Each structure stands twice: as C-alpha cells, then as structure tokens.
Amino acid sequence: MKQSDFQMLFLLLVFILGFLLNRNLSKINEKILDFTPYLRSYWVLSVLILVISLMLNILNLNYDPFKDKQIISDWINTYALLIFAILTGYQAFKQIQDGRFDKLSQDAITNFRAGESRFNEARDLYKDALAIKPKDINILRNFGELAMILGDDVLFEQIIKKMKKVAKDTKEIIILHYLEIGKELLSEDIRSAKREIKNLIKFLKDNPNSLDGLGWSFGELQSSSSYKALSGDPKTILTSLIDLLSKKLNDEAKLEFMDKYQ
Fold it and tell me: Cα–Cα distance between 239 and 236 in angstroms, integer?
C-alpha cells in the first residue's frame, strides 16, 4: 500500500468515526457512559488530541508503516503512555468534581432547611450542583420543591422536565406528582391540581405499597410564607395531600380523599 493510499484510508476512517459519534454521542452518553458535562468535555478534548496527534504522525510518514515494525512498536508505546496519562487525569478530575458536587449539595440542603432568608443562596448552590450532575435525582427533587415554593414557574418547569426523564423509582415518581400538584395549588389553580391529583391516585392504586418509606419531609413547604398565605380550598387540599403522602390519614380519611379526586 502506498503512503498516499494509507493516508487517504486513514482520513476516510476518521471522517466515518466522527460522523457516527456525532450522530450517536447523546445516546452513547445517556445509555453507556453517563458522563457529566465537564467530564464529557474532558473526554472530547482528550480524544481530539489523540486523533490529531495520530493523524499528524501518519501524514508525515515517509515509509510504509506496515513494513516498519520498529516504528509501529514505538508508536504503540508512545500512545499507550498517552492514554495512561489521560486515564490518570480523568480519575483525578473526577475526584475533584465529585468532591465539589458533594459540598455544593450539602450546602444547598443546609441553606434550604435554614428557612426563607437563605432560599436565594440555596437556589444558587443547587444550580451549581446541577451544572456538574444535571441528572442527579436528589438535587432535582429538592431544587424542584424550592422552585415551587419560590413561585419561579420558569425554573420549576425546567426542573420538572429533567425529572420526568430520570425519575424511575416509584418514590421518585410520587415526589414528581407532589411537586406538580403543589405548584398548581400554590398558584390556586384548583382545576389543574385536581387533574394532577387524579394521576397521582391512579399511580398509588397501581402501586399500593409505594408510600412505605417515602421519607420526604414537607417541613420546608409548611414553614414557608407561600404555604402560610394559602387559604380556602387550595390550602385544604394541599394539607390533605401532605397528610396522605406522610401516611397521617387513617384508612377512612384516605379512602375519602382518594374517592373524592379520582
């Protein structure tokens, strides 16, 4: 094989690989790799460096690489060391990122639980945490409740959209329903709230033991001015909903609530 033929073949393979990755990168990342945005950028840059380096080496060849075994051996050693360095850097970068995410998450929760005077700080911390791990369901749930309490409809819808993509566990789905219902009731949109309650009741009937161990504290909502300012039917319905999800309703009251809104 001539050098020019080999170079053309290599460029063709690089083009095909780039085309396939471009078409399927989001699916590969979602189903297999699940990289966070920062780690994904790290790998894209690393692979780009490898490909460009390899391409430049091949384009500068003055020999047939299939016959010169020593050169190929040197290449293998060089690129093995480069790949090892990239993997080592990845592990170090990941540890730094995970540590920062854990601190942001804990600080956000602390500020959220501290009360309304710290809600803005909590919102900023949740945003920073989601920038690192946008699919973390625990952050999404807490941030969603904060956005609901603050009445930030745009932010709330963004979070709910993400939650719907990642919520798989029955408890996560219940919290998703709770947030959607709570948002409508805090806005005093009883009609929309009743529609969402109907969906929740259907889910609970299909999953009869799903409330066991829900482990959700409604304290942040109940201590907020948004909840305290609520009155009439929206307040009554939201309070009953909280009691239902907290398993504070007796069997008779539970059946009455479910029969009323199903």
Answer: 5
Sequence length of the chain is 262
Integer CA distances (angstroms), 127 to 102, 112, 136, 160, in order:
13, 13, 12, 14
What residues contact residue 107 under an 8 Å CB cut-off, 6+ apart?
125
Nearest to 244, CA basis, from 223, 259, 231, 233: 259
Model confidence pLDDT, tens digit, residues 50-93: 676 666 666 555 555 555 566 666 666 666 666 767 667 667 66
Instruction: Pick the closest to residue 145 from 253, 59, 205, 217 (CA basis).
Output: 217
Q: How many CB atoms lie within 10 A of CB 89?
A: 12
Alpha helices in the chain, H assignment, sequence order: 3-28, 37-59, 69-113, 119-132, 137-150, 153-166, 170-186, 190-206, 219-222, 225-228, 232-245, 251-261
Token pair for 90: 């990845």
Residue spans per domain, the chain:
3-97, 137-261
Nearest Cα neighbor of 204 from 175, 183, 179, 225 is 175
Q: What is the pTM of this model?
A: 0.72
C-alpha to C-alpha distances, 209 to 17, 197, 204, 205, 206, nearest whole angstrom:
48, 18, 8, 9, 9
Interhelix angle 137-150/170-186, nearest 10 degrees: 10
